[in-house]
Design brief:
17 helices, 345 residues, alpha/beta, two-stranded antiparallel ribbon, globular, 9 strands, 50% helix
């Protein structure tokens, strides 16, 4: 069976844009919050296939997205490598920072895939349980973004410690990036082996880097991962998401070899339309418009559909669904997209 989402990623014109939403399984859904109570902590949640499968399926039941994305987290990689990772309520992820070559050398890539075997079990089960017309997305954090968390010890910073290390001792920092390239590629290849039909690489912190640093720490690592995945699975499409890359989006697309690029909400639609000539674009509704609903949501949705609906295009947000998003707003959006024909609203 042809899948709308995979057709769009392969550059085909579709009758309507396929859609899924970043963080579509999450706290905005009451049924998610009920399941979350059954896990002792967030990592336990990610590593319990019964729970992870259930919350991955929940938004499909409500909204009929064209793709399901594995329920997991980008920080399972440092956890799998042996770094201390903890998710604290009201605070988010907290890691024991790694800030030296000795810290890098303390990590153990040989334990990674065994440690992440519950994730692969989840994928295997999802590949059998999602609707036949729905595609299954696997994902990972890109090396720069994961390195930021590993070095800073948390998110929500200016990435100053990681950026400083990368400038002062680039060869040391390169050792961490190289480890993450190898580990992430192996992780994604295993995800595909267990049923993932497309891959997304999240580089959420790429926007903090200068041009030269962006090329070394974002473009080159993503390129290396795409190459390794394609050597093993050439037909599996890869979506890159260098969030807030601005003027560097085109460079990222051309140099990494991604099949599609996910755009944040700051990218003007005219620029998105130009990028559409190079590859499939995905995005880029402002998640605050989804929270607001009403006329604001309708206006923004129509703008995006009219600008990008001719394809190749996947409708998504510019970042993840916010926890306080009303579920009925997501239902309206799903109906609007499903009711659209290519190039019209």
């Amino acid at each position: 069976m042809s899948k709308l989402f995979l057709d769009a990623l392969n550059g085909k014109k579709t009758d309507r844009p396929p859609f899924w939403l970043m963080r579509q399984a999450g706290r905005y859904l009451p049924e998610y919050r009920e399941v979350r109570k059954n896990a002792k902590n967030f990592l336990n949640f990610c590593y319990t296939p019964d729970l992870a499968v259930e919350v991955t399926l929940q938004p499909l039941r409500r909204y009929g997205m064209d793709a399901a994305i594995l329920f997991s987290d980008i920080l399972v990689i440092p956890d799998g490598l042996g770094q201390s990772v903890e998710f604290r309520e009201g605070e988010g992820p907290v890691l024991e920072p790694i800030r030296s070559l000795a810290g890098i050398e303390s990590l153990d890539k040989n334990r990674l895939l065994d440690h992440l075997s519950p994730v692969f079990e989840t994928l295997g089960r999802l590949s059998k349980e999602i609707p036949a017309e729905t595609a299954l997305i696997g994902f990972a954090g890109a090396p720069w973004t994961v390195a930021v968390y590993m070095v800073e010890g948390r998110g929500g910073t200016d990435c100053g410690t990681a950026r400083s290390w990368a400038y002062r001792q680039p060869e040391e920092f390169q050792a961490l990036i190289d480890l993450l390239v190898e580990s992430t590629a192996a992780y994604l290849i295993e995800q595909i082996a267990h049923g993932a039909e497309a891959i997304q690489l999240f580089d959420s912190w790429s926007g903090v880097l200068s041009e030269s640093q962006f090329h070394r720490w974002v473009v080159e690592p993503n390129k290396a991962i795409v190459r390794r995945v394609k050597e093993k699975y050439p037909a599996v499409p890869v979506i890159g998401f260098p969030r807030q890359a601005g003027l560097m989006y085109e460079t990222f697309i051309r140099e990494t070899g991604v099949d599609a690029v996910s755009l944040d909400s700051n990218v003007p639609l005219e620029e998105a339309k130009a990028l559409q000539k190079i590859c499939t674009v995905q995005g880029n509704l402002d998640n605050q418009a989804l929270v607001a609903g009403g006329a604001a949501l309708e206006t923004e949705t129509i703008r995006i559909l009219e600008a990008l609906g001719e394809g190749p295009f996947v409708f998504n947000l510019g970042h993840g669904i916010l926890p306080h998003t009303p579920p009925e707003h997501v239902a309206w959006l799903a109906d609007a997209i499903k009711g659209s024909a290519a190039g019209s609203s």
